[in-house]
């Protein structure tokens, strides 16, 4: 099942996320498996719109930026800050885009750069530090 609108259907419980246009685009352009509606926190019900869990890269798609949408009303904004701060504490990189930006070349370039940096960072962490003799 392919959806072009990332917020058309919310996934809950044991339901599995369908493939949508953005996940297919990421697979084709970046060769990564982007997971839709990824629950990243053990005790909170927080989900990222999209994520590459192995690299701890998340993509949030925020609508309503030109109007008075959920993400720019005070209560929604404060809840987003709590969610994103918790994600940062857990080592996640969160990239934010509007729905209009999601399916663009610029977004793919940003993701490609972020993925490359995370892979490099993880490789450095996996390599034991050279001791001074």
Outline the secondary-structure elements.
Layout: H1 21-30, E1 35-39, E2 47-52, E3 57-61, H2 74-89, E4 93-97, H3 99-102, H4 105-126
Parallel strand pairs: 3-4
Antiparallel strand pairs: 1-2, 2-3
What does this structure look like?
- The chain is of the alpha+beta class.
- It has a domain at 47-124.
- Helix content is 39%, strand content 16%.
- The chain contains 4 helices and 4 strands; from the N terminus they run H-E-E-E-H-E-H-H.
- Strands 1-2-3-4 form a 4-stranded mixed beta sheet, with helices on both faces.
- The longest helix has 22 residues, at 105-126.
**Order of strands, widest sheet:** 1-2-3-4
How are helices and strands ordered from N to C?
A: HEEEHEHH
Q: How large is the count of helical segments? A: 4
Protein structure class: alpha+beta
End-to-end span in angstroms?
58 Å
Mean pLDDT across the residues is 83
**Percent in helix:** 25-40%
- Assess the beta-strand content as a share of residues: 15-25%
The poorly predicted ranges are: 1-17
Shape: globular
Largest β-sheet summary:
4 strands, mixed
User: What is the number of beta strands?
Assistant: 4
How big is the Rg?
16 Å
Describe the structure in brief.
The protein has four helices and four strands. It has helices at residues 21-30, 74-89, 99-102, 105-126, and strands at residues 35-39, 47-52, 57-61, 93-97.
């Amino acid at each position: 099942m392919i959806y072009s609108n990332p917020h058309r259907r919310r996934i809950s419980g044991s339901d599995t996320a369908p493939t949508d246009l953005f996940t297919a685009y990421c697979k084709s352009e970046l060769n990564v498996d982007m997971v839709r509606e990824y629950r990243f926190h053990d005790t909170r019900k927080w989900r990222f719109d999209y994520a590459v869990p192995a690299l701890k890269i998340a993509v949030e798609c925020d609508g309503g930026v030109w109007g008075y949408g959920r993400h720019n009303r005070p209560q929604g904004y404060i809840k987003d800050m709590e969610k994103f701060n918790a994600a940062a504490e857990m080592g996640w990189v969160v990239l934010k885009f509007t729905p209009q930006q999601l399916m663009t070349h610029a977004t793919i370039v940003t993701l490609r750069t972020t993925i490359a940096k995370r892979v490099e960072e993880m490789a450095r962490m996996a390599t034991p530090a050279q001791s001074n003799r």
